[in-house]
Amino acid sequence: MNAPDRMKQDVRCANALRFLAVDAVEKAKSGHPGAPMGMAEMAEVLWRRHLRHNPANPGWVDRDRFVLSNGHGSMLLYALLHLTGYALPLAQLQQFRQLHALTPGHPEVDVTPGVETTTGPLGQGLANAVGMALAEQLLAASYNRDGHAVVDHYTYVFLGDGCLMEGISHEVCSLAGTLGLGKLICLYDDNGISIDGDVAGWFADDTPARFRAYGWQVIDNIDGHDATAIDQAIADAKADTARPTLICCKTVIGKGAPTKAGGHDVHGAPLGADEIAAMRDTLGWTAAPFEVPPDVAGAWDARTRGRQLETEWNTRFAHYRATYPDLAADLMRRMQGELPESLESDVMALLADNSPLRQKIATRKASQLTLETLVGELPELLGGSADLSGSNLTNVKASVWVNHAENVNKAGKKAGNYVSYGVREFGMAAIMNGVALHGGFIPYGGTFMTFSDYSRNAIRMAALMRKRVIHVLTHDSIGLGEDGPTPQPIEHAATLRLIPNNRVWRPCDGVETAVAWLAALRHDSGPTCLLLSRQGLTPFARSAQQIVAIRRGGYVLADTPAIPEVVLIATGSEVEIAAAAARALGEGGVAARVVSMPCVEVFYEQDAAYRDSVLPPGVPRLSIEAGVTWFWRPVVGESGVALGLDRFGESAPADALYRHFGLTAEHVAAAALGLARVQS
Amino acid sequence: MNAPDRMKQDVRCANALRFLAVDAVEKAKSGHPGAPMGMAEMAEVLWRRHLRHNPANPGWVDRDRFVLSNGHGSMLLYALLHLTGYALPLAQLQQFRQLHALTPGHPEVDVTPGVETTTGPLGQGLANAVGMALAEQLLAASYNRDGHAVVDHYTYVFLGDGCLMEGISHEVCSLAGTLGLGKLICLYDDNGISIDGDVAGWFADDTPARFRAYGWQVIDNIDGHDATAIDQAIADAKADTARPTLICCKTVIGKGAPTKAGGHDVHGAPLGADEIAAMRDTLGWTAAPFEVPPDVAGAWDARTRGRQLETEWNTRFAHYRATYPDLAADLMRRMQGELPESLESDVMALLADNSPLRQKIATRKASQLTLETLVGELPELLGGSADLSGSNLTNVKASVWVNHAENVNKAGKKAGNYVSYGVREFGMAAIMNGVALHGGFIPYGGTFMTFSDYSRNAIRMAALMRKRVIHVLTHDSIGLGEDGPTPQPIEHAATLRLIPNNRVWRPCDGVETAVAWLAALRHDSGPTCLLLSRQGLTPFARSAQQIVAIRRGGYVLADTPAIPEVVLIATGSEVEIAAAAARALGEGGVAARVVSMPCVEVFYEQDAAYRDSVLPPGVPRLSIEAGVTWFWRPVVGESGVALGLDRFGESAPADALYRHFGLTAEHVAAAALGLARVQS
């Protein structure tokens, strides 16, 4: 094909994206046409000339990743997936935004083949992409060998003004620059418009200068509708593998709409039949809605090239496997998310009678002791902390800090299994989501529990995407003491438990902490939050049966030979208070059972027979947790008592605070006595 | 005093800060000495040479504001407040971090005289300061007249690496630059150390370049221990009133500690007796712990100058009052946070029979209709949205956009009562906190309800500080439809309700929306979240008594002449479903009462007699809310039924989703019938 014809084809390919987006939004009577129309040339160039993928196998491990961070432009992505040959037929595009369609309002991973992450909440797609690029870099540093670049792909992002205004863009781009994630390439759809109108009134950043300040390569002043310029910019971006690249593309939102282009009305509503008809005239597009002209379909079809790319990689990988069979097997195991078979026995071995986990230690310390073993056993564990390593105790002897200059491999790339994310809680959480999405890693990261507020929507996104990400949330109550109410969590245990698919474990001692880690690693359909104490906690003796029962989320920790007159239910640091109260009650002739309930969600997934065996119907219940009590009322029932804290904390030593707020064995015993007496 | 003596005095003044901080942390056996030691010269220069304040009256309305954004350095602030003459005696410094002391672990507003905001969660103090500077600029634009600069103060911030790594610093500094908040002056304690160690491994930004990209004046390469350089930098900062200023001060963390200075061990732990003794030797400090040498005490005492400054201002204000009595009265009313007396009748007038609020409209629209009146009546309302004005419907005819170029007064300053915050939910919320802290405004701001996750910790901080900030959270359920699960809130109503001091209103129609706004304005001891629908909701007829009862948080909306056999409790968009179910039940001969419970927290603050009159004991209960059901179990009790959604939503039209998830009148009626039958 000669140059003019090729250019004409490129234009038609871009316009095919425009019309699929516009027609689908029109049919759905809802959606966002402006962004797909403005990014059509960017998409055409990236997807037809650079992106290495195989539509027949969206799970090819070394594919380039593509993230649409401005996820409201979902129809652009669906059009790309359809046109390049993914299992996304036109009928699905016609069902855009309808129930059970593969084309939901915003892209959702594991719903639509080829979608790499769920986007919509602005800035997080970009953060996920930083995680993917980090995963690629670390896997490459671990597994590639001379002449065997088996991990070798780019991560591309489309993003808009909204992503760049969000604070998380600062957190993750600053870190990406520091870590030199050179295979991360971001294309900024700089259309100057956000929902409130012309962004100049609220977003006047010199964005290129900002990103240069992060150590990025910035290629600015690209005409986002000039395919040649975009093509060259992407080539330049790929060539610099030492720095991430931002390509700033000046675009016109809704480009192609004769009267609406360039205005914010085109952002989030259908164009209307008249505008679309005029657009067809203007662009010389004669095809009907959802009709892709054969020449365009052929030009877009990426299946042959995709098969070829993956086949080449398969050949390379076969050579690698032949030379490094163990590495190859381990890489594949990791990419498939399979745990080593030895995990169970490794963790159980930690619980021997003489284990340091059986000492009086903080559960954050117990977590670190557990990690000392786990990090050695599981190369897929990618640890980290939002600048609180020494407080969260997330780092262990086997931790190799990605951040440290000495941990750079001979290719000049950072290597390691531990990331100091800096003071960037939300960024950390969303990067961890991206790491999990990439595959090859189980990310865990620490911060103070209260600052789960900062990362909350990323925890929710992991829950929505059902990805295995582990949050190590230490300083889990007023027990942190003198730092006072700002870091003291009150409502957080309860509110984290209310996120669907999220699991919250609040272990009461070293043994429960190790079991909680095991449960977290095995929970592969959502995130886990481990709530850990700053202060030392009294260890409990347990039978083998009891240790097994921990996994059921709640179990009888200390019982009375008699039929219990009252059941005391507690979590974490309050279990020892409940146990002391039970002893006092016993001495006073009241039979009290102690139930430890480290994971309420898992306990309520158990069958009724088990639950009733732990919490016998008719026996009055008292709960104690140093947080909001409303959450516990369904557990204790109308006749029960929920002890906790329904106000913010104070600044004082932990013991003084527990006394001040009445969270003492004496108070628990007195309340339980009242309950037992009323009942009898 | 000659120059060498003055310099010597300055040094002793700075060292007094160091020793008070070090000795207090040592006595408390906990705290953060490193930051106060590193910032001692910055503090000495700012507080002794620039800050305009009156220790005898921390409430003087035109005082300069000072925010310690790196709040863990609290002892620096306590030392400053003590030394300059605030009501914070030495005995309180000796009780640092102890129960009931005025010197909690992190600074808390309304606990310690002179503390302007509660800090600790990094980045938010800076954001509060942006809010204070914005408030000053807007008040000045509204109230100052030629020759009468009655609102005229600076806002100063100390901040550290941690604040600058946090995403919120990007959001608020980008906006501050765009809005030209020229009287905001930030001093960056650039000590190169964060908790994980040398920041170079995770924070390599060119921070001066970053802030220049935001349009700030940046004064960099200041030696943070050179008082003369700091003094000149602050003078230069004050001189540029068109741009906010960042002064980058290179400092040594723990400066003055002979062996520990410059390392991260000095960040968050006592220095120890030996190090402190050596420090006394090195710095030639002979005073005992908590002893302030008389010459130093005298040099620090700011009471005389403070009285003089306020007296001068009082004189100026008296002239202003004489010339502009109405403006002066209104400004003082606003600064005192008093609502106009007409508010009640204004809102009630909105509820006339022919009111548009009585039509079938979305509650977000009802909110806008209410605001049409409120914004006209209350000049203190400062509205805004995180780039969703047209969706949140937070803007009204009387809204004057601060962002728009035409709304600049003749002094070149932005004026107005509405802020397009850009896509910056967390920044918006924390700026609103700062606006409320400054006084003179009741800020309200909108975003999609799910993105309260982004701003969550700022909502919590308003709750902790008990400040009146109103969050307009629209698109409050799966009822938003096709945009799908990422923006559809599921757990948010429940989890927002669990934040102490936060009030959550989810009105069911226009009338309840207006009353919710009234309640929000009157709730002056914490934030309010208004949860509003995207979709139109059926209006209900109410008696005058019922309208009054709305304020009690829950009330009988539709009753049966017979004794109810079942009570249906609902909020927001689910009330009309409950009402339809009650009608169906009634037609089937089952007497069902409908309770609307727009604010669960307020309902449970009512006395038991009222609560029992609404929810008669013994009558079975069913709740319906399109969110997690666990929250409602205490309301319906063990025998009741809580209908809702315990999983994430889907992308589809709203009606299809309600049917898909079984949130229909038919389903409610069937479940209620089961309940009523079991009971009878």
From TrEMBL, chains A, B:
<keyword id="KW-0808">Transferase</keyword>
<protein>
    <submittedName>
        <fullName>Transketolase</fullName>
        <ecNumber>2.2.1.1</ecNumber>
    </submittedName>
</protein>
